[in-house]
Structure to design on (342 residues):
């Protein structure tokens, strides 16, 4: 059965960590959640290393670590930390697994095919560097290689170019959380392509950012080991905005608990059929030339996806929320804003 890993935005005492512990949920943190930031003389936030003092708060929990590649690309235009700095964080705590660094290829990051292919090649290089560094630190057994792509065949290309992966039990599949379930580039097509490509191998897959109907649809797939998501933050933000109050950590923890339990219940349902998806036509509307219209279109499409996956309700998809979503810094970043060190 697929294991659902609960994404948490930071390592800190409080309602979120307490609730996750009470739920006995496996938890995933981004490296960004442990980052220290300080302002320079011009008031610009500058990365100032990882805060490992809080790691003891995770004792007794099943904790996993991700490199934070999407946020790094979206907010910082690249990683603020080096491979060695990230691997030192990986070695600082007995994580269940630590994801290799990679270069995501979502459309807002990689706008054309050449850039996608370039970032796939860069992902291969980062995996190689992480494997060498992890071996030197004695944590290679914890490292999870990560592959990237947008078209299903991109992932096969990435696999073919990777170092030998025969000793790894799980491979992470990136750039999954912002795509549809069906269609020629949908989640189901990517998984089927990888399953065919890995035929004869016992390696399992972790799907980053998979939630709702996606996780439920794939719950019986023998190739999938784990999925993760932090999408409860989106639901809490929309609900708080609709109700006209600020999103507190206590409120967020309540939403998180209900959301997590629903995710787990969905993937624990008996499997009735196995899906064999076929490619669909790409019916996405053309991107408007006007930047503001393009931003609004993207926001509306993201809210439609949230509606489809049950994260928000139909009544919450209206012009006011679309406008707020388009210019919501948290929604744009995909994670909470940078926490500045005192």
């Amino acid at each position: 059965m697929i294991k659902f890993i609960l994404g948490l935005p930071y390592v800190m005492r409080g309602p979120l960590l307490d609730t996750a512990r009470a739920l006995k949920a496996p938890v995933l943190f981004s490296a960004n959640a442990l980052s220290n930031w300080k302002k320079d003389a011009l008031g610009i936030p500058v990365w100032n290393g990882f805060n490992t003092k809080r790691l003891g708060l995770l004792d007794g929990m099943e904790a996993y670590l991700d490199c934070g590649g999407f946020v790094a690309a979206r907010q910082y235009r690249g990683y603020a930390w080096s491979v060695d700095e990230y691997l030192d964080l990986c070695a600082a705590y007995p994580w269940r697994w630590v994801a290799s660094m990679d270069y995501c290829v979502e459309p807002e990051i990689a706008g054309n095919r050449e850039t996608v292919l370039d970032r796939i090649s860069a992902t291969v290089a980062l995996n190689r560097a992480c494997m060498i560094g992890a071996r030197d630190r004695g944590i290679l057994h914890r490292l999870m290689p990560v592959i990237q792509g947008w078209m299903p065949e991109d992932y096969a290309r990435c696999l073919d170019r990777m170092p030998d992966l025969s000793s790894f039990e799980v491979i992470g599949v990136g750039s999954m959380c912002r795509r549809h379930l069906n269609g020629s580039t949908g989640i189901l097509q990517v998984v089927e392509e990888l399953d065919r490509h890995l035929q004869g191998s016992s390696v399992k897959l972790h799907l980053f950012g998979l939630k709702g109907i996606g996780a439920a649809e794939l719950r019986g797939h023998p190739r999938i080991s784990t999925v993760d998501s932090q999408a409860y933050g989106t639901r809490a933000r929309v609900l708080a905005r609709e109700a006209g109050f600020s999103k507190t950590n206590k409120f967020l923890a309540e939403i998180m608990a209900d959301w997590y339990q629903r995710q787990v219940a969905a993937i624990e349902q008996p499997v009735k059929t196995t899906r064999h998806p076929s490619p669909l036509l790409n019916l996405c509307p053309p991107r408007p030339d006007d930047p503001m219209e393009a931003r609004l279109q993207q926001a509306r499409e993201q809210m439609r996806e949230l509606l489809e996956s049950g994260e928000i309700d139909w009544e919450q998809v209206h012009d006011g929320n679309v406008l707020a979503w388009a210019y919501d810094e948290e929604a744009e970043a995909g994670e909470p804003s940078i926490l500045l060190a005192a």
